[in-house]
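[agent] plan:
  1. take the single chain provided in the ticket
  2. run structure prediction with default settings
  3. attach structure tokens to the ticket
  4. add a short note for the reviewer (M.T.)
[agent] executing step 1
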Amino acid sequence: MHPQHWPEDLDHSGKRVVVIGSSATAITLVPSMADTAAHVTMLQRSPTYILALPAEDPVSTVLRKLHVPAGLVHRVGRARNIALQRGLYALCRKAPWLMRKVLLGAVRARLGKGVDMRHFTPSYKPWDQRLCVVPGGDLFKTLKSGRASVVTDRIETFTENGIRVKSGEEIPADIVITATGLRLQLAGGMEIAVDGKPLVTRDHLLYKGVMLDGVPNLAMIIGYTNASWTLKADLACAYVSRLIAHMDRHGLTSATPSPPRQTAPTCPSWASRSPPATSRAATRSCPARASGTPGGSGTTTTATAGPAELPDRGPRPPLRADRPRHTARHRPAGPRPGGLTPLPTLPEPDARARERGRR
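[agent] step 2 finished; step 3 output follows
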């Protein structure tokens, strides 16, 4: 069975359970089911980096004991956890060899010297795939107690008594759980239509990661991929709540993001290329502008996420003859293909400068 279709009357007491997978769902199910099951086996095709963290935030616990206001404790804890999470991710990307040693060393310290690290040593670098966190190290405690075990192999077939893997070993199982992940569908897979016209989501911009342009009163929750999914879901829900409150205050009945319609600003004379407005709109976060008359039915609030005007920095200063720049390309003046503004003609360096450039 799949965790999404968990039977309410399932009783795994005294049963042999096999959990297929090594993701967050699997490492959560194993310790929770091992308390009453006869034995739980986590069957994985390949290992995943696993990090144990405290079940409760130690800083927040201390602040509560000091009778710090709950709101301040929440803000401090949230800021601290975000900083730690971002720092961990950045360090894993900048020094993967170091963080690999740290993560694997932490696992070895939790399970003891007799652990087979083959089950906990991925073939990829930290954060090439998502890193799993076990609160309080409950997974490691369960494995160390012998109530659960890990098998790293590929499934060959299901048998009458359980699962046979490629190595020939047969894992006995009364219950098999496929905790192999989810297939996400945008908007839950529902068919979206505006005024009877079907909408192709890939042809639309996603405003603030929540709303589709041209679709009124529709919000979708999409989490982070390199951080906690619920952290981004929390931010998205807070934005939708603020938007609804704003509409209530002003008597508005609809909110529709609209794509940018203005053209890109004039390219400075020294620029080599003018990026399209759609590209910048997708990568820059600009304030939304609301329009519409409050009150009455059919009133529309349009949130426009258009490109911001770039500051005009003026022409590039001429190249100094005594400081030649070898990356500069001399181009003839005149119009260029694509309507781009030509680069200014640079002065030729004198003989003394050329000699210094050759050195």
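[agent] step 4 note for reviewer: Residues 266-347 have pLDDT under 50 and may be disordered.
[agent] ticket updated
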